[in-house]
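Exercise 7b. Backbone tokens:
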């Protein structure tokens, strides 16, 4: 639904559907935050031994970003989405909170890119290919999470007596942009995995050829 929609045109069933959707989204946000905390605490001992005691590398820095940035920003997301706020508060914070979600994509995809490049032996062609794709993904995510992020119509806050600071996901354009972002991230993951698989197969083939040549040479010598 766009910001110009007048909710008074809809009946109680429509209002109930909106309220139920908001409640379900809030439960999902709270559950995701609890899951992050549980997963973090469950692996804290291993993380301390394998990560915090290790020397600083690019992968360590990216791991820490992937680990602690979502934990930090999810506190603000939980406050914004789960709490009941008025329209003025959401006008100030909705766009900021939504923009802070974007780096969650950046860090995770950067880890996949570095791993794929390492498997490829830092092949320049792979670096260029994945680098360009990554820049495209960053551009898409900035467009999705930082550009023209509207909040629901003010009347919704009046009818519900306050609600979470959600972007207006009912807007068709917003829904389409979120879909494009998810598709771009999925394609980036698939491309990185494809590079890893191809170079693993190539390494195995090269190893088999080398072994075959070795045994052939041994046979000739014998």
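Sequence design result:
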């Amino acid at each position: 639904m766009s910001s110009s929609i007048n909710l008074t045109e809809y009946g109680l069933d429509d209002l109930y559907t909106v309220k139920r959707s908001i409640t379900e989204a809030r439960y999902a946000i709270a559950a995701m935050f609890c899951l992050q905390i549980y997963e973090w605490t469950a692996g804290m001992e291993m993380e301390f031994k394998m990560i915090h005691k290790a020397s600083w590398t690019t992968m360590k820095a990216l791991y820490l970003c992937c680990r602690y940035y979502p934990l930090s920003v999810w506190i603000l997301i939980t406050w914004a989405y789960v709490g009941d706020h008025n329209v003025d508060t959401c006008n100030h914070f909705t766009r900021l909170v939504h923009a802070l979600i974007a780096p969650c994509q950046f860090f995770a995809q950067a880890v996949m890119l570095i791993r794929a490049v390492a498997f490829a032996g830092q092949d320049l062609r792979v670096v260029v290919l994945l680098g360009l794709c990554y820049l495209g993904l960053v551009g898409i995510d900035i467009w999705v999470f930082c550009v023209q992020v509207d909040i629901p119509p003010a009347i919704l806050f009046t009818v519900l007596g306050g609600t979470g600071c959600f972007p207006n996901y009912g807007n068709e354009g917003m829904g389409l942009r979120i879909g494009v972002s998810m598709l771009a991230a999925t394609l980036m993951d698939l491309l990185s995995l494809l590079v890893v698989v191809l170079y693993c197969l190539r390494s195995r083939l090269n190893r088999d050829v080398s072994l075959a040549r070795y045994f052939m040479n041994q046979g000739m010598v014998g």
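Instructor comment: Residues 172-221 form the longest helix (50 residues). The chain has seven helices and no strands.
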